[in-house]
Structure formats: C-alpha cells, structure tokens
Write a structure and sequence with these properties.
This protein is an alpha/beta fold. It has 21 helices and 11 strands. Helix 3 runs parallel beside helix 4. The protein is globular. The C terminus is likely disordered.
Length: 626
C-alpha cells in the first residue's frame, strides 16, 4: 500500500494479513461457528416471498388470458414477462413492509441486557475532498458522547483521508489539531492522509486493515457524513460482542440535516416508511443480511480473513475495481461462515442526504454502475443463495427503470386501440399486438390497483411508525403530519417519472461502457443555472413533449397524462427540488421529522461542533497544524 503523509499522527502499526479472495473457489474461515437457519427464519421468508409470487402469478394468468384473444404472439409474451418482472418487485416491497409491520406490532417482552465482553473498537471515517468542519465536527460530537457514557469498551477514531485537494488537506490538518486540543488526552484520535488514493475507498480501508487492523477487535465503518450517537455505537458493539457468530452488524441509518424540498422528501420518506421495510428485511434476511458500506460494525479478523476484494474481469474490462464493494464484502463474510445481521432496532444512526434532484441523480449513476457490476459476480463459488439474491436485487433496482420505460413506450405506441394509435397514425398499418380494448372503468381499475400497490408500503409504514415509533408531537402534531404525508406522496409521484428516465439513462451509460466520475458527493447541494438543468433533463423534456403532443392529437391514451406532466416539467421541478424549506418559519415545518422538531442530542451537538470548527478553519489566525 501507499506511504502516508503525516504518519506521526498515527499509532504504531499492528499488521494484519488481508489476502485477496478467489471468487472461483469456495472458502470457509475455520474460526467461524456453524450457522443454521431457524424455523422462524424460514417462516419469515415464506411469509415474504410467497405472497409476492402468488400475486405475480395471478397477474401473469390474468394478462395471459387477456392477451390470448386471437393468439399469443412472441412480442405479447415478452410484454407479459416485463409486466410480471416489474410487478414482482412491487409485490415484494409490499410483503416485506407487511412482515415488518406485523413484527413491530407484536408484543415483545423486554429481555435482560447481557453484559458484553470488552471490545477494542476502531471508528473509521474515510474522507475524500470532504468539507473538513463537517467531518471533524461530527467526529467531535461522537467522541464526546462516548467519553461521557458508561461502557466496558475502548474506542479509537481514525480520520482516513484520501483528499487530493491541497487546500482541503491543509484544513484537515488544522481541524485535527483543533479537535485534538479540545478533547481530553485519554480520548484516542488519529489522522492519516495517503499520498495516493489507489483503489479509492476500498484501498483506503484495506490500507488501514493491513497496517493497523491487528490491534482492534472490531472496526465501525462510517462515511464522511455519518453520525452516530454514543449509545448507538455502544449498542452495536454490544451486539457484536454478544454474538460470536456475527462477522458484520449493520444499523439502519436515518436521514438528517435536510433543508431543501427534495432532501426533506427523502428524509420524511426514510423516517416514516423505512422503519417497517427495515424490520421486514431484518426478519427474512436473518444471518444472511447485507452491508451498506457505512454505520456498521465489523469483526476485524473475520473481515481480513475473507473479504479482500479481487479485481473483476468483465466482457468490457479486465482487472476492474469492484465499485459497490459493500454487497460483495457482506457476501464474502457469509461465504466464509460468518453471520451478517441487520439490526434496525438500534436507534441513533444517521447519515445525510443529497440536497437536489441533480445531486441525487449524479450519486445514483455511480451506484448504478456499481450495482450492475454485481451481475458479473452472481456465479461466484460458495455464495449463499440469499447473498446472490441481494446482489441481483441491487442490480434489478436499476434495471426495473428501463423495464418501466419500455412498458410506457409500448403503451404510448399502441395508444387508444386499433383505430387510434401512433403506429397507424404514421404508417397506416395496425400494430402487430392485439392490445385489449379497455373501457374507462377497466383503465381506472388497473390504475387504482397499480398505484395502490405502489403506495401501500407508504401507508403501511406510516401505520407501523405511529403505532410503535415517535409520538405525533415529534412529527409536528397530527395536522402537520397529515399535511407532510400528503405532500410527500404528491411530490414523490411528480418526481418518479423523471427518476425512471434518469435511471434508464444511467443503465444505458453503464451498458455502453461509460465510466462515471466518482467525485465527492455534493452533500450540501447547489443551485444550478437554467442552462445546466435544461441540458441535464433534455431527454425527459423531449419525451414529455412527445407524450403531450400524442395525447392532444388523440393517438395516445389520456391515462398517460400524469406521466407526461411530470416529464415536461422536469426542468422547473428540478429547480424546485433545491428550494430551501428552512428559509421561512412555516415552510421549515413541512416534511419535518423528529430530527427537525425534536432533534436528538447528538444532532444538536454535531451542529454546534460543525459551526465551531468552521469558525476556526475560516479564520486565517486559527490554530495551525502541529
């Protein structure tokens, strides 16, 4: 690995072997205990997947019977397959939320808290050209809470910088000196900046594991925007200490700090609907859970023995870096015999959110590239079937958008039937698909059914949260919650077609071999000029305009009007996404969550420390680097 700048700020090296894994050969870590799926896990999985399969099967039967009038063509068969594929994932989401809701509503006796064996834990914060006062402000808040809490564990925080910008690097040094001076001497804090950032975040963490990992029982991996309360960190540590079979335990990060319309929509949705979804996922995943790359604790020796990532050979490139490394690392841990668990009941785990639609899409393009790369890993030796499903599920999250776009295109081309459709309008020929005649009643029934399935997780999640989560006053009161709930649904419906087109573009860019620029996330967002926004959303604008023209010409069904409206308004909606709700008192309440109305102590502390650190770093007479 690379040499470091500022090596004096690190402790003595404690090397740990971190061999690269062979995906073509099975591997088991002899230290991993035997894991056996329980009957309860099998029942949870049956309760999740069986309803989705039955519902999808029923839909296939209905559409097959519908299309079979006059014979079923190959194209119609493909169309039914597309419908079934898209609907299955909707059904799976509904059943997962339903399982989560059932679990959350069950009465549970409070178990006695077990005394956890003491653990030596490293808190790892990788940073790459991030805002220094945010990174070090969060670090200060976390360390202060851990220092005042009672626990048997010891914690050491490492800022692992891959920063390339020299000005930011200089600020990081000053921030480290400021933080070091403000904390008690017994609080362990270190800073390392790599001279080069080979293999990005994967290489950054691998460098730490190989050189210092031997001195720590566990490592809690954070992102630059991660924030965890002291109690959340201790709870994760206790979970790992009390479960010798666990190689990794993932928390459920809540979103915080959103100030814009688009950011608040994501934050509200994550808080209100995410809880039941997370509980459902935790039930059927059990020891075959997943890893999201941050806010998770990992048994260091287990990770080092089996999670060294190889380079990937694909039909487009040789020796490619595995981009979305987290899913693969979770799979490698489970392959070696270690459990990977998801514990959404641990509260106090947070991360920030992209502020605007464009910032979200730019991040999503990178994630798309990484998740589609997983299709090349599905056949790897020794992976658990649930691991393969996680990898496939991640890729399908992006492939569904082209599938939806294809269905939209077919619906638009077929239009209103044999006598009024795009194909006949331009060529005089009837299309080769016997699209069933649909009355207004049947159109409405299908629309209500599809939107009902899409919105069902939101309503179920809201019921679950209000039944077992924050009280209404932490959501602004009953009236404010109802208004925010309705607003979130309307805004989400407006942005959904735009995101469908953008994800389709992301898949196409990945398919043709376009390499996304993995730049630091614009966590605070930015206001983009009209020309930039127009260029960014040109495809949606053109597609929406064509849909509008077809609808007004009478050759495209009126039922596509809501989608046409969203697409043709993509530019103004994108500009609106960055509108700051915190600018005025009334708007600052909208789409508010407990993190807004009753911010936890750790969030208040982080904001305070960020402001303090910013004042120091923006002052030319601030504390110099040591």
């Amino acid at each position: 690995m690379s040499a470091d700048a500022n090596a004096s700020m690190m402790p003595p090296e404690m090397p740990l072997a971190f061999p690269v894994q062979n995906l073509s050969a099975e591997y088991r870590d002899g230290r991993a205990p035997e894991l056996v799926s329980t009957r309860a896990t099998s029942l949870w999985r049956l309760a999740t997947f069986l309803p989705a399969l039955i519902t999808t099967g029923g839909l296939i039967a209905a559409f097959t019977n519908w299309f079979a009038i006059g014979g079923l063509s190959v194209f119609e068969g493909l169309l039914i397959a597309l419908i079934a594929c898209t609907f299955f994932w909707i059904s799976l989401s509904v059943s997962t939320v339903t399982v989560g809701l059932f679990h959350m509503m069950r009465p549970r006796a409070a178990g006695a808290k077990l005394a956890a064996p003491a653990q030596n834990v490293a808190l790892l914060v990788p940073a790459y050209n991030e805002v220094p006062w945010d990174v070090f402000g969060n670090a200060c808040a976390m360390l202060e809470e851990l220092d005042t809490a009672e626990h048997p564990h010891s914690y050491t925080l490492f800022i692992l910088s891959d920063t390339r910008n020299e000005e930011i690097a200089e600020q990081e040094l000053r921030a480290f000196a400021t933080l070091r001076a403000s904390l008690p001497d017994h609080v362990a804090l270190h800073y390392r900046r790599r001279v080069d950032n080979v293999d990005r975040k994967v290489g950054n963490l691998a460098d730490w594991v190989e050189r210092w990992g031997g001195g720590y029982d566990a490592m809690l991996v954070l992102d630059a925007d991660s924030l965890m309360s002291g109690q959340a960190i201790i709870s994760l540590t206790d979970e790992l200490a009390n479960d010798p079979s666990a190689g990794l335990i993932q928390s459920f990060p809540q979103l915080f700090g959103a100030e814009t319309l688009f950011g608040r929509v994501q934050q509200f949705s994550n808080t209100i609907y995410g809880a039941a979804l997370a509980e459902g996922l935790a039930r059927w995943a059990d020891h075959e859970g997943n890893y999201w790359g941050h806010n998770a604790i990992i048994r260091t020796a287990a990770f080092a023995s089996c999670a060294g990532l190889p380079r990937l050979d694909t039909f487009r490139s040789k020796g490619a870096l595995i981009l979305s490394h987290d899913f693969v690392e979770a799979g490698l841990l489970r392959r070696a015999g270690w459990g990977v668990r998801f514990v959404p009941q641990v509260k106090g785990s947070y991360e920030e959110v992209p502020a605007t639609l464009i910032d979200y899409v730019l991040r999503d393009r990178r994630w798309c590239q990484g998740n589609l790369q997983h299709l090349n890993i599905l056949g790897s030796k020794g992976f658990h079937p649930v691991t393969r499903f996680h990898l496939f599920h991640g890729a399908m999250g992006y492939l569904l958008s082209p599938a939806w776009f294809a269905l939209l295109t077919v619906w638009a081309l077929i239009g209103k039937g044999e006598e009024a459709n795009v194909i006949r309008y331009f060529t005089g020929e009837n299309p080769q698909v016997a699209w069933p005649e649909m009355s207004s009643v049947s159109n409405l029934a299908i629309l209500v059914f599809m939107y009902g399935m899409l919105l069902a997780p939101k309503f179920l999640g809201a019921v679950a949260l209000l039944g077992s989560g924050p009280v209404l006053r932490d959501l602004g009161g009953a009236g404010q919650f109802a208004l925010s709930f309705i607003t979130e649904i309307i805004v989400s419906v407006l942005y959904a077609p735009i995101l469908m087109v953008q994800q389709t573009i992301a898949v196409a860019r990945t398919w043709i071999g376009y390499t996304e620029n993995w730049t630091p996330q614009a966590r605070q967002g930015g206001l983009y000029p009209w020309t930039t926004v127009l260029k960014f959303h040109a495809v949606e604008t053109v597609v929406g305009t064509l849909l509008f023209a077809g609808i007004f010409a009478g050759i495209i069904t009126l039922w596509l009007l809501p989608i046409a409206v969203s697409l043709v308004l993509a530019v103004p909606l994108s500009m609106l996404s960055g509108a700051k709700l915190t600018r005025f008192k009334w708007t600052s309440r909208q789409l508010g969550t407990a993190e807004v109305f009753n911010a936890p102590k750790i969030i208040q502390s982080a904001k305070r420390e960020r402001s303090r650190m910013r004042a120091v770093l923006e002052n030319s007479d601030g504390i110099p680097a040591e």
